[in-house]
Specification:
Aspartate Aminotransferase, domain 2, aminotransferase (chains A, B), globular, Aminotransferase_I/II_large (chains A, B), transaminase activity (chains A, B), homodimer, four-stranded antiparallel sheet, Aminotransferase (chains A, B), AspAT/PAT-like (chains A, B), Aspartate Aminotransferase, domain 1, 14 helices
């Protein structure tokens, strides 16, 4: 402390106590390794398609650089409406939509509106950890309910366990399907059962559906609250342009929620970011209006990538891995691993393949490793060649 | 409530209780008026200069569309450092800098780190209301200390009143100089006096310096904590690209704070927005590195605009207005006005000039009107012609 400083000003202890990202621990420990194949973050290895970038550039040329409405520019509101109707068959009006600066921003603002100190939120894990952190940052208590790993590597939800975790302090159930890191896809029946419970108990469902279009097989989207929830139901659906349109760096997403919650989210958007970047929203308009074929091609590519990784890793005796049903992660267990963080650091050094430790996604993730296969097939083949000797 | 919904899920009452923008009340009430001159928002009427837009477009062409570090891309961190050194003579290292998605976002994340329920924050007003709302949203109690209007229209700070408003619950003093809406510019001595108090008491200063370069006369920047604060001092300086580089719609800003607070802000950035849009940050690099001449021209233009408005309004018997020293607002009192919101709605309809009601900036703003003169001189002349008959 400097001489002039008499008394240290306080930073909130719950904020200081929030854990940092364990994935970043691996990336920092591996910063000096040359020629790494980086499969640790949840993003593809190709930039945003050119037609979307051109949409944003044209907006810049037109001078779309002014303040915009909190809810989003009208053409984006319309494009989001049209997209949900076209892709999901869901008719959702503008009083139920707010655009956000990413899925993360959507989660944080929603949690600001719904969680106060003393409240609890039940989180279905293993899950991307940031939602839990948003709950903690607002003074709430996240309660884990873990999916159960089955013999074949798939995950299942014990519904009774979920309901038993909720009590009078519970404001929110957080669900992510298709799931990061598990690839778990909730069935329409499961979503309906949770919705019936939420209606009965007055508990919000925060449904993170950012991987909703990235699903393999004949379906073109995962079961979704877009179609299952009524306008007044206690359901907040999070979406993002990051995954389906390869726009991670753009920070753009949207919320669908009941009108009364959208009014609160709109107000809190003003006090958080005011609105997503104006010309970025125009990129979003282009993505939604002209991007259907791009998504189709992307999902085909990811399905081939999933096959390649599954064929390479599943036969290894130490590995347990189910064929992914959605999202773009292989979340495999590795016999004998009790410290996935150290294992990932070791594998990065020895195999020069960067992956995310299972512990980053909660205690139920320990013993596992997450590999993001949203990469080109040659790169993935090379990664498999490097990895396999070290997984035997 | 729909038939299936048994119990309404709760939205946090403090969030529901937050007031919406009174400026938006005027804009909504005036939506049907044709040919309005809109001087109600705090932004210029010209788009971002082309060279900055080209910087972002080039980044889009290079495929700068991926996730980035929470603190900001290294070239932007360096450009911010270089700018503060060049413009303020302040040597501030990267451990004291975090980029944010606007000044508003910077304030919200700072408040998340510093304010818990039961804490108070002293706010020097009249002031842009969103900082108060961020404090309330985090469960804190904003306490107003109002600048005193002098006979000549200028504002002064009663230092004892400020100190008396602080007690053991006080975590934060919020100050905005040059001030929106007042145009008040704190002297270096005043800033130092507040700093000494903050050091003694362990209270943070949140110094919103987004208008720091928009100051009239020989100085090229307002007195600033960039030069007055030591690295470990309890000072958070908010800056933004919105005002000095005409980048309101871009949502880009930065924080300067002690390293220990920057570490917390960096972590909370992950849980709020992850990082500002990647190619937007490249636009920021261009703005900072190549924008010095632009700022110089902008301030000259705003000074001429300030003169024009001052010459037109100050002589009117009902008006009291000091010549603005900084920022880009005329915040004039109008004899006989007790309801500035209704007055602004009336003036919008009768004079077709859109302005912001003083009450939007706190009770001490009642009886006043804020006119943003960041507009072209012909437009301002026309606005004066329309307004003057109604202010007599």
């Amino acid at each position: 402390m400097s001489e002039v400083l008499k008394r240290e000003a306080r930073i909130c202890q719950p904020i200081l106590d929030l854990p940092g990202s364990r994935i970043r621990v691996v990336t920092r420990a591996s910063a000096d390794i040359p020629d790494m194949i980086k499969l640790w973050f949840g993003e593809g290895d190709e930039p945003t398609p050119e037609f979307i970038r051109e949409g944003a550039k044209a907006a810049l040329d037109r001078g779309e650089t002014f303040y915009a409405a909190n809810r989003g520019i009208p053409p984006l509101m319309k494009a989001i409406h049209d997209y949900m109707l076209r892709a999901y068959g869901a008719e959702i009006g503008p009083d139920r939509i707010v655009t956000t600066a990413s899925g993360m921003n959507a989660i944080m603002i929603t949690v600001q509106c719904l969680i106060e100190p003393g409240d609890s939120a039940v989180v279905i894990g293993p899950i991307w950890p940031n939602g839990r952190s948003a709950i903690r940052a607002m003074g709430g208590e996240p309660r884990d309910v873990f999916l159960q790993p089955q013999e074949d590597g798939r995950w299942t939800l014990d519904m009774q366990q979920l309901f038993d975790a909720c009590d009078d302090t519970t404001r929110l159930i957080m669900i992510n399907s298709p799931g990061n890191p598990t690839g778990w896809v909730a069935s329409a029946e499961e979503l309906k059962t949770i919705l019936d419970f939420a209606r009965e108990r007055g508990i919000w469902i925060l449904s993170d559906e950012v991987y909703g279009r990235i699903i393999y097989g004949p379906a073109t989207h995962a079961p979704s609250y877009y179609t299952l929830a009524q306008p007044e139901d206690p359901v907040v659906i999070i979406n993002s342009f990051s995954k389906s349109w390869s726009m991670t760096g753009w920070r753009l997403g949207w919320i669908v929620a009941p009108p009364r919650l959208c009014a609160a989210v709109e107000k809190m958007t003003e006090f958080n970011i005011s609105h997503p970047t104006t010309f970025v929203q125009w990129g979003g308009v282009t993505a939604l209006n002209d991007g259907d074929a791009y998504i189709e091609g992307l999902v085909e590519r990811y399905e081939r990538a999933a096959d390649l990784v599954y064929q390479a890793l599943a036969p290894l005796p130490r590995v347990r891995l189910a064929k992914p049903e959605g999202a773009f992660y292989a979340f495999f267990s590795l016999d004998g691993v009790t410290d996935s963080l150290q294992t990932c650091i070791d594998l990065a050094r020895k195999a020069r393949v960067g992956m995310a430790p299972g512990i980053a996604f909660g205690p139920a993730g320990e013993g596992r490793i997450r590999l993001c296969y949203a990469a080109s097939l040659p790169k993935l083949s090379e990664a498999m060649e490097r990895l396999i000797p070290h997984l035997k």
